[in-house]
Amino acid sequence: MQLTMFRALAARPLPVAPAPLRHCLLALIVSLWLLSSRSYADQYPVSPGQEWSRLAAVVRPGDEIVLSPGVHRPASLAGLRGEAGRPIVIRGADPEDPPRIEVGPAGPGSGLLLQRPRHVVVQDVVIAGARHNGINIDDSDGSGSIAEPWQADLTLRRVAVLRTGPTGNTDGIKLSGLRGVRIEACLVEGWGGSAIDMVGCHGVTIDACTFRGLPGHEQSSGVQAKGGSTDVRIVGCRFEDAGQRAVNLGGSTGLAYFRPRVPEEAGPGTRFEAEGVTVERCVFVAGDCAVAFVNSRGGVVRDCTIVAPRRWAFRLLHETADPRFAASEGGAVEGCLIVWPQEGPRTLVNVGPGTRPETFRFGANAWWWPGADVPEGRNALDGLPGERTSKQAVIDPRLNDNRKPTNAAAARFGAGG
Questions:
Q1: Residue 282 in this model has a pLDDT that exceeds 90
Q2: Which run of H or of E encompasses 150?
């Protein structure tokens, strides 16, 4: 009735009045109209132990699902649809005492499952003990079919995913077939497969996150972008003993899982597992290898600090026999600080068969290990693959406890000079 009244008022001719008064009346009518058309958001509080998957059917743009402190059940929420500026928010009621979604031995394998979400924010929650994936977000329409990438416009913020797996293809956060994802200030600690696994994902930013390996967990890789993923940025993150490949830039994906699909008629060497991935201002401590380029094109590792990898700083690999896939090519490493505090590496960069190392570029980087400044050490740097646009520096950075150089000569290299 209120809306009808405002429409009728707007339709009535205004009496003749002085111009300033007419302007005030028009402004009042517009204000009342806007007020009448506003949609007010609802909050849906969830107490520990409640079943809350049913809320997927009732929440609307701007609504919030608010989890109270305590232990909560896993949830599966399909088809959440927020709007630009009015997302659906799933959050903890108290960021200082975040709720824990615990996956028991008899429950589902994942802590939180979202299918085809759009304009959704998940923040200030903890997910622990998942046997499959801690968080699983995909483009499935429920029929089991694999679709083209889904425009998600999704944010994960201040989410902790703990003790996933601990073995096999079990990921802390699994993203499949999504466009437009931000992962901010999250923690993934202990997993089986990848801390974050992206298959066919595009336009993803992973910012200021920490990935920490735990004893008893396989931790195959830290962050992995594969299955045709493009335009991925990994910025300001910390990787602590994050597996065999802390960042797997590319990978090996079954053809059925690529988004978009790989055409049968695609020419030889025209397809990649990942393209346009940037790793910037990150810190890597331990692990077998900091970054692996695997059937990828054009990846960039820039201004990163890499400390004490167990085997290599970088790897160039080719892991598919399909002739449509090109060898890894065109990667770049620049502005990085690579340090072995005690013992020098046997190989700085592992170059696998079937790759194109001559297309890689090493810009100005700083390297250090005991003996790096003697002829044998400098010979190892001279053996780096590909193009070297600048002379590689040999500098003892004298790292402090925060992995930042105290030697001013090294301050312009790495993540935190």
A1: yes
A2: strand 150-162
Whole-number percent of the chain with pLDDT over 70: 88
Rounded to whole angstroms, the Cα distance separating 235 from 201 reads 17
Q: What mean pLDDT do residues 56-62 have?
A: 97
Query: Where do the structural domains in the chain lie, given as residue ranges?
Result: 1-38, 129-410
CA distance 52 to 46: 7
Q: How far apart (Å, rounded) are the C-alpha atoms in residues 394 and 374?
A: 10
Instruction: Evaluate the CA torsion angle 255, 258, 261, 267 in order and state its sign.
Output: negative
Architecture of domain 129-410: 3 Solenoid (2.160)
**DSSP string for 55-114:** GGGT--TT-EEEEPSSEE--EEEE--B-BTTB-EEEEES-TTS--EEE--TTS-S-SEEE
Q: Which amino acid is at 207?
A: D
pLDDT level of residue 5 (50, 70, 90 thresholds):
very low
**CA atoms lying within 13 Å on the CB side of residue 105:** 0
- Per-residue pLDDT tens digits for 211-238: 999 999 999 999 999 999 999 999 999 9
Neighbours of 335 (CB within 10 A): 20
Q: What is the model's pLDDT at position 241? A: 98
Tokens of 11: 């339709």
Confidence band (pLDDT; 50, 70, 90) for 2? Answer: very low
* Residue 318, amino acid: H
d(CA 37, CA 24): 20
Tell me the β-bridge partners of 317.
Answer: 294
Instruction: Please state the φ and ψ torsions of residue 377, each to the nearest 5 degrees.
Output: -65, -45
Residue 307: beta bridge partners?
285, 339
DSSP one-letter string for 354-416: T--GGG-EE-S-EEE-TTTTSHHHHHHHHT-SSEESSPPEE----B-TTS-B-SGGGTTSSS-
Q: Which residues contact 408 (CB under 8 A, 6 or more apart)?
A: none
Q: Identify the pLDDT of residue 144.
A: 60
295 close to 273: Cβ distance less than 8 angstroms: yes
Whole-model pTM: value is 0.89
Is-contact 384 349, C-beta < 8 A?
yes
Nearest Cα residue to 10 out of 28, 23, 29? 29
